[in-house]
DNA sequence: ATTTTTTCCGTTACCGTGCACGGAATTCAA
DNA sequence: TTGAATTCCGTGCACGGTAACGGAAAAAAT
């Protein structure tokens, strides 16, 4: 008797059979209750539920996954993972997360689209829907199209999560991304840390007007607010460059610094700081501090060489991994995420800590 | 036919039954080969191995965990998790990691010891060995005693991993911790970012001489090297305080700053920067930059208030989680970690990004 | 009261491994 | 050549759930 008692203390988790026995029903019925797929009388339902609650039963996810077979699919909808791009980083996170949810019987499948082509986005959407996934992770670039897409997901009651950019949308399960405003604020603080800034250059990308949602807009607002609060006498100028034309970029930088040679501090709000690195390295004396975003390989190398002073990293690989995790929790255990909007940490990378990322 | 073909594409993983069939043996024999527990003829062994290799078979961890039952235990050996301490942070990581490895049939159990009392360490060691864990994670404070302990683990062929501090030891599976030297270097860089440092104070803790391994020693070396390379004219002074006596600490700080009123930059190499925060906040004009380590709650609050300029966070919760993960990979799938020594990222926390940690 | 339909529930065959048990095949001793 | 001791291997149940199937009981229709 005592032996049994001590065994009980070893936290023998109640199984589906235990609650079947205690409620005087079979495990088939209990299973129907657990997944509430009907064919259960009100009375039995209540009985089972009360026993479940009493014993604090929670299903064994691994047995569940085994029985179900590797079947649940999470589909990802993100821009093409061009080598060296922001989205390639996200790809790494997808791979890692896939591994960790695989034992739970969840697989992932990626649908890419061209971020300059709304048509390709719509195409990817429809291919994704054909695959009938159990959950979806979206990095939404095209606002209106995304709205239509998520509406369809809601209709099929497929849960979905956003990362990187959020949509005004009532149905999403979770969002993982940077606190955009604060990231601009932080950027300005890091840029002006040496207290010697008087003329600042913001380099921006000529955007395709089709692109409807752009996280850098709010980022810029945070930046400007910091500047007017902490460096009211600073002059902030903007230069637009074309990401597809390196030579033109160089010329434009030449022209800019010829016109404003007092500019010593440079910032960019997207992941493309590496585009201006060649110019900066040909004019090492021109700038005192350079701040950019995101831990792309090219960016980190420039950081290690000292060309870039600081990178603010949002680690899209973590964001997408957490989105996948949240969807898995939902799909496998029906567990709602703790928070819906998850503003993730911003890491400050300098040449002295970059090698460990 | 075509339908089946498309299903086959869905990467039907080979099972133990497949390789049994193809090698003309039974799954029992295959199982014995997989866990090489003998009772298999040389011929059968080779045959099974070749089929395994050919099919690229890898065992289904979740089925394996289910069949085995929740049994494998990983024991943690760390100092007491006093509220507000560095080790409490680690506790959070343990809880999170426990959850994620639980589905794989691995549980965790923590053994605490008093970091000022070697006897309690030895006691915890023997209690841990009695529990006969399948793997061990150690934060080694007492060098010699740890050596004896790990020797015993090796004798029982129990794999073990270090975190926070490493031991000179040939048998450990993996180590997770900060790059100590670089962290000191980074600390100096962050402290002197405003280019106005001329007199610097290092606050240190009066250590119990029993404590034999202290990660802050190397950290200090990195700090001093940076200073002599980048701020050769800076004067660096040291003050020792007693962690148990706040009033005395205040008095000593009073005395120090009375003697050296030109001191504007302060750093500490351990997680106890919060000990001097009260004094700093009573003398807000005294210091220009203050740098400390570790994301303790009290430290982060001081950071948010602006008393502390920068915290370098090593996130022990991640370190211990990765150590648990590495051991789980070893125990469950026999997979060796990719790297033995894992120097983890150092995060720079400022008042503008701290709220998202 | 009998048939038909619905509602509800138990049974059963898996999912992929681990492992104990027992028996066949082989080797050794007599 | 026969019996005993070893090797070696196959069988079958267990792990905790899932879900299809079929049948009993209850409700509805005739």
Rg of chain A (C-alpha, Å): 26 Å
Q: What CATH architecture of the largest domain in chain A would you give?
A: 3-Layer(aba) Sandwich
Strand order of the largest sheet of chain A: 2-1-3-4-5-11
Oligomer: homodimer
Amino-to-carboxy terminus distance of chain A:
56 Å
Query: Are there runs of chain A of 5+ residues with pLDDT below 50, and where?
Result: 1-10
CATH domain topology of the largest domain in chain A: Rossmann fold
Order of helices and strands of chain A: HHHHHEHEHEHEEHEHEHEHEHEHEE
Class of the largest domain in chain A in CATH?
Alpha Beta
Class computed from helices, strands and strand pairing of chain A: alpha/beta
Shape of chain A: elongated
Describe the fold and architecture.
- Two copies of one chain form a homodimer.
- Chain A is built from 14 helices and twelve strands.
- Chain A is an alpha/beta fold.
- In chain A, α2 packs across α3, α6 runs parallel beside α14 and α9 packs across α10.
- The longest helix of chain A is centred in the last third of the chain and has 18 residues.
- In chain A, the strands form two sheets. Chain A has a six-stranded parallel β-sheet, with helices on both faces. A six-stranded mixed β-sheet of chain A has the order 7-6-8-9-10-12, with helices on both faces.
- Chain A has three domains: 44 residues, Orthogonal Bundle (434 Repressor (Amino-terminal Domain)); 135 residues, 3-Layer(aba) Sandwich (Rossmann fold), CATH 3.40.50.2300; 134 residues, Response regulator (Rossmann fold).
- The first copy, chain A, is elongated and about 85 Å long.
- Chains A and B meet through α5, α9 and β12 of A and α5, α9 and β12 of B.
- Chain A binds a DNA duplex (30 and 30 nucleotides) through α3 and α5.
